[in-house]
Amino acid sequence: MNKIKILLTGASGFVGKNFIKAFSDEFSIEPISLRNTSIENTDLKGVNAVVHLAGKAHDLKKVSKPEDYYEINTELTRKIYDKFLASDASVFIAISSVKAVTDKVTGTLTEETRPDPKTHYGKSKLLAEEYIFSKPIPVNKRVYVLRPCMIHGEGNKGNLNLLYQIVKRGIPYPLGAFENKRSFLSVGNLNFVFNQLITRSDIPSGIYNVADNEALSTNTLISIMSDSLNKKTKISYVNPSLVRSIAKIGNILHLPLNEERLQKMTENYVVDNAKILKVLKQPLPISSKEGLKRTFQAFANEKK
Question: Where is the NAD-dependent epimerase/dehydratase domain (predicted)?
Fold first, then answer.
């Protein structure tokens, strides 16, 4: 029996590397670098599914030009989706983001939440989504747009890794007085969703939030990190008013703690995954806490 052939964009990224590691034996994966190969020259002959991971991530350093987001996240997606529609491939999966909906969540983010992104990153992702579903989907094709929250796992170099290094050095987490909850997504659960969408024909096309089942507080996150390092959990409960005052000074003096970073570290961002669970008809295989434990173990192994 021939393996399912997958055209994979963004293969050199964090999610792409984990996809290849998880499915290299199960699928025939053709990774392409869109830095070196134009969409026009990409051949989809014999391809069964397109998994489009390539994109420009949100630039926390704010050095990117606005047009870069639209060129990569919007125009590139348009071109590869048009290529898919003209091919014999039957499945198209594109990675979007919860940030295509909003940067700040009041309550819980669902697929019914009206999109109102404020950043060029979020706007470029939303435009790509709108283009994909602006055209009728042929009856022999299935099209999925996934909106993941913060993805973590082996090879992740984002904020979780930075926080892990703070805990590893024994530095107390100073924001324990802030009550918050946010959703995370284990790359293992994301790969499970990929597998289901590719191999099953009973899952309807559409937009799906993807998140682990349980939202966790940052204090719980610090505790899981400490346990993984066999360290005592160190959390300081500094008065929030004092912290906010320091953050305002940080804006002026360019300190490590400013108002934007404080907001990111203490915000509530809970993502509802009920829609994807309903169509999968089964739970995600990895619990929120277990997924984070695996990620922190991977962080520890990377340093050895």
Answer: 6-211
